[in-house]
Structures are given as structure tokens and as C-alpha cells.
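Page 47, continued from p. 46.
Same chain as before, 71 aa.
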Amino acid sequence: LRKTLADDHPRFIDTKSLLGRCLLAQGKLAEAEPLLVGVYESLARTQGPRSDVTVKSLRRVVELYEKRGDA
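Result:
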């Protein structure tokens, strides 16, 4: 998928988000973090920091940090 689509392509962002959420649900926080943070950064850049989808993504990052005990 990565060879075909740019990092900021919506389909690639959706795929990374889904994988990050699955890893988060499984408690694989170290693996989920770069995906969820990367998705948030991509969405903030392409959709704007206040778009609904970006805010939802940020909430997942916060959830990750809460589970890890950093929030």
C-alpha cells in the first residue's frame, strides 16, 4: 500500500488509523503510538487541527497516553 499511495493519502491514513486502534485495543501501546501520532499529525496537516476527524484522532492519542500512564 505504501508503494502506491503517499503518506498523506486518505486511504493510507485510514489504514494506519485502523491498525493503530487495533494495537491500542490489544494493549500494544509501543506499537500503536507511532501510528496514532502519525495519523494525528497527517490529519492536522491535511484537514486542519480543528476538523472533527483530527479531534477524534487526537482523542485516540490521549487514550494511548492515559493507558500508558502519561496523561
